[in-house]
Structure to design on (609 residues):
């Protein structure tokens, strides 16, 4: 009887462990890192911690929290710097906290914890406000001290930061919608069905055109004045993250592993799509010399503006986070590797990698 | 292997049901549970047969004789009981096996629910890789996780008098208890296997209740539907032991 009882308990424990393994408790491993950088440091939101890494040598400048991880915090939205030296990090964990850290020291300045859902999206910061889309379907507007200014309920989960032309905020949603919200009235002025979920941000052109990639395997250009679709181009796979815009060309990758350069005038391809060695999730990085993308197969590609591959570098793991430039370095954050941040020079050579202390 | 043969097919069947019934994930889970119950019907029927064999054994002359004969020798009694089980093709764990068989289904279903609801970027990315071509996923993603008052991707509770009452977990405990009791054979003193069945009928509901309390409420919805269908199945087959539900009543 005792043996049977022990077996029963063991079975229950095993089942608990198996179920826990795929639940929110393991949130830290449930997404990839968020990465941003200034001229001196890289800031990496990775699982239960946020790291500041010195660009000159790849050493840790500080870590938040300093000691033990809070199991209710899980960071994977890219941190955002403000002009007054705040580093804003948002947690997708159970605390639903949006935290302002001192970018120099990593100490907490304020915490906003009034949202009902976690923060998967990064933030839009303007001169006097922070716009924070939440998975509870609400867009929160805060002042730079973390006080709630207003909020607007939208449908569906919001996973991407909005863009603004100074008069309106344009917010994409997983419920297939694009919302235009007036910055004066804070009301939804118009919305448009995009026929597919949109986990990435729109890109706003100087002439008022929005470019949006969707899970409907499309890039859609929308004129914000008329609210009409100017053009749409079909891609081979779903578009995950935002495209990047440079002088009339839109660069974007898809989950089937194609990289496109589209003419913003009509959506036609500038050159035949390149097919690197895996799906492309993160927004491409445009530098003066070339465009950098990371693939799910763990390779960073530098591609020139004519569509020629300049160099490739195998980083390892999976490159889902958007690459960023920090000073003279290209930074990528691989997933499923011991090191969580890799710095490359402009020749594609690895300069250093950063492994968090256990 | 587990993903390919269990989680991915389960996720796709769930999403397919979700798509054809008008995008209600709660109804999809209920229908999926009915499908699982239908597929495992022969197994459950076989176990019920074993349970009935146990019940008949309690009145058997030879069985009663060995109970008396080896009253003081537990080891010998167990050996003799095993011999009779073998001779008559009876599974002594008949009352708890159907519940145990649910375990891989529970794990697979839970993973399928979490994958289908895709609450994080990585799970959404994984979902995009798990879908069969016949699904029109562009329309159905993201899934609507709301069903009645529940968010099926999160543990459930209802605010009552200032307290968060886990109503689904309570219903899971009650229905699991009723189901276990209905199929528990009467036990003779010293019958270890039957006692084991009794013990399971007490522990398992609380274990299921704990899972319902802790994990996504979609899983609790599966438990409740499965339990109710189980009770209905036993009743339809005329094998529900209703007298077990009366406290203090011995057979």
């Amino acid at each position: 009887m005792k043996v049977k009882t022990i077996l029963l308990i063991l079975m229950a424990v095993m089942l608990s462990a198996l179920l826990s393994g795929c639940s929110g408790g393991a949130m830290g491993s449930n997404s990839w890192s968020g990465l941003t950088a200034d001229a001196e440091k890289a800031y990496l939101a990775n699982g239960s911690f946020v790291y500041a890494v010195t660009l000159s040598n790849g050493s840790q400048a500080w870590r938040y929290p300093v000691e033990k991880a809070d199991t209710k915090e899980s960071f994977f939205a890219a941190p955002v710097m403000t002009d007054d030296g705040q580093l804003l990090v948002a947690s997708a964990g159970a605390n639903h906290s949006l935290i302002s850290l001192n970018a120099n020291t990593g100490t907490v300045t304020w915490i906003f914890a009034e949202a009902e859902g976690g923060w998967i999206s990064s933030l839009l910061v303007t001169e006097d406000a922070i716009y924070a889309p939440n998975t509870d379907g609400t867009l929160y507007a805060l002042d730079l001290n973390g006080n709630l200014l207003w909020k607007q309920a939208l449908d569906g989960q919001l996973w991407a930061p909005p863009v603004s032309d100074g008069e309106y905020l344009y917010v994409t949603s997983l419920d297939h919608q694009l919302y235009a919200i007036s910055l004066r009235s804070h009301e939804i002025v118009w919305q448009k069905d995009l026929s597919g979920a949109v986990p990435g941000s729109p890109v706003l052109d100087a002439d008022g055109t929005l470019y949006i990639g969707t899970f409907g395997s499309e890039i859609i250009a929308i004129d914000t004045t008329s609210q009409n679709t100017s053009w749409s181009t079909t891609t081979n796979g779903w578009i995950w993250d935002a495209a990047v815009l440079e002088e009339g060309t839109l660069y974007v990758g898809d989950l089937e592993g194609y990289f496109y350069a589209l003419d913003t005038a009509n959506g036609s391809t500038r050159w035949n799509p390149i097919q690197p060695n895996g799906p492309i999730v993160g927004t491409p990085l445009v530098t003066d010399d070339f465009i950098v993308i990371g693939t799910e197969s763990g390779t960073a590609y530098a591609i020139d503006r004519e569509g020629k591959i300049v160099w490739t570098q195998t980083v390892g793991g999976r490159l889902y986070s958007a690459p960023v430039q920090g000073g003279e370095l290209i930074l990528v954050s691989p997933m499923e590797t011991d090191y969580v941040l890799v710095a490359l020079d402009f020749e594609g050579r690895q300069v250093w990698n950063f492994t968090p202390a256990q | 292997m587990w993903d390919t043969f269990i989680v991915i097919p389960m996720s796709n069947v769930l999403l397919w049901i979700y798509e054809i019934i008008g995008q209600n994930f709660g109804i999809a889970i209920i229908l999926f549970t009915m499908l699982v119950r239908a597929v495992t019907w022969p197994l459950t029927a076989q176990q019920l047969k074993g349970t009935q064999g146990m019940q008949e054994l309690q009145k058997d002359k030879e069985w009663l004789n060995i109970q008396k004969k080896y009253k003081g020798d537990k080891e010998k009694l167990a050996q003799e009981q095993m011999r009779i089980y073998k001779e008559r093709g009876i599974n002594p764990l008949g009352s708890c096996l159907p519940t145990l068989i649910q375990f891989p289904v529970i794990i697979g279903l839970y993973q399928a629910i979490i994958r289908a609801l895709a609450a994080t970027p990585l799970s959404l990315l994984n979902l995009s890789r798990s879908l069969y071509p016949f699904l029109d996923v562009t329309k159905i993603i993201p899934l609507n996780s709301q069903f009645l008052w529940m968010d099926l991707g999160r543990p459930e509770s209802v605010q009552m008098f200032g307290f968060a009452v886990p109503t689904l977990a309570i219903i899971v405990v009650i229905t699991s208890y009723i189901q276990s009791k209905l199929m528990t054979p009467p036990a003779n003193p010293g019958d270890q296997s039957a006692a084991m069945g009794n013990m399971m009928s007490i522990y398992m509901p609380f274990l299921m209740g704990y899972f319902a309390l802790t994990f996504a409420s979609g899983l609790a919805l599966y438990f409740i539907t499965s339990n109710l269908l189980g009770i209905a199945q036993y009743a339809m087959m005329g094998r529900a032991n209703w007298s077990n539900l009366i406290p203090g009543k011995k057979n």
Summary: Chain A touches chain B at residues 1, 4-5, 8, 11-12, 15-16, 18-19, 22-24, 27, 29-32, 76, 92, 120, 135, 156-157, 159, 174-175, 195-197, 199, 215-217, 238, 240, 255, 281, 320 (CB under 8 Å).
